[in-house]
Amino acid sequence: MPSKQVTSTSTKNTIYDKFINFIQFYLCNIIHNPIISSIIIISYLYFQFINKIILKNNSSILNEPVEFEIEKDNFIWDILSTIINIIFILRFQINFNPIKFFSKFISKSKNIPTTRSSKYLITLILEISFFLIQIVSCVYLILNFINIIYSQKIKIFILLQISLPIFIFGLTFINNKSLLVCLKECNNNFLPFFISNSFLFINLKDLVNNEVDEVEFPKLVTTDNEFLNVDFIFKLANYSFKFYLIYQFIIYELNQIKNCEEEQEEEEEDQAIEGLKDEKLLSDNQCYEGCYESTTTTTSKTNKFNYISLKNYLMLVTCIFMILYDCFNIFYV
Fold first, then answer.
1. With contact defined as beta carbons under 8 Å apart, do 272 and 2 qualify?
2. Which residues pair with residue 68 across a beta bridge?
3. 105-135 burial by CB neighbour count: b if 16+ within 10 A, else e?
4. Which tens digit of pLDDT belongs to each residue from 16-69?
5. What is this structure's pTM?
6. What does the alpha-carbon distance between residue 25 and residue 33 come to, in Å, rounded to a whole number?
7. β-pair type (68-69, 207-208)
8. For an engineered disulfide with 326, which of 11, 75, 153, 214 has Cβ 3.0 to 4.6 Å away?
9. Where are any strands of DSSP class E within the chain?
């Protein structure tokens, strides 16, 4: 019985690992590489920023005010879209834990409790707050945005997309999961709704209303002496950035499913092994193979750590740069 369970576990793990590796290698490293998209986004925004500064300075010197065709509401939506990106990066890639992060700064304070129960309570409050924020945001988007843009058929799918996290919350609660686990699962499954709709928030109406060629944003020249639309490349980079985050969310969920199945089967194996201990049927070779597999996995993760960290923190820097650029357009331009 234990050998059959081990075989089924390894077979399932192989299927999960192959699918995860396919997404990670082809979709996340080749098609939607975040390093390339981040460099394109930062370069585009940097040159836009420099051009606007030059235009502002020239207009002040010549006393000729320059006019920008900018709807500042678009930049507000763009900030919200970028905040959604940051949440995905912190929650599913970096696995950011606010309690551990802030405990480094407040651990010396005697007035702040640092017991396990207090940390659990703070985490629960954060998840509840995040849940309420998402509910309010969903209602606002439906009433002021989705209800205007989408057709009736698409609205039905959106309502199903919103109701699914509530269903998952009830399902996990029925399976005797803690309230914190239920809320975390529910919040995780709410987020795809926001990032799928945030594709529409990408701001592309940042055009300078000026007829002088020297001050327009530079365009790339192809071999056929035709101009390549830089705005279109910027749009593709933004889409690629978000697709990468969606695929990382899928990988996160697959790993969660894989870990849950491993835990269940390990419990069954432990019960079976307990019954076989007296007969000494567990060989030294099996123990060695298990140690070797865990060592190999740890080594591969260590080798990939630097590259993964580079991608994650470069994406965070890109998001911060995007927010700063949007704020610049809102308050300065």
1. yes
2. 208
3. eeeeeeeeeeeeeeeeebbeeebeebbeebe
4. 889 999 999 999 999 999 999 999 999 999 998 998 888 878 776 666 666 666
5. 0.79
6. 10
7. antiparallel
8. 75
9. 68-69, 207-208, 220-221, 227-228
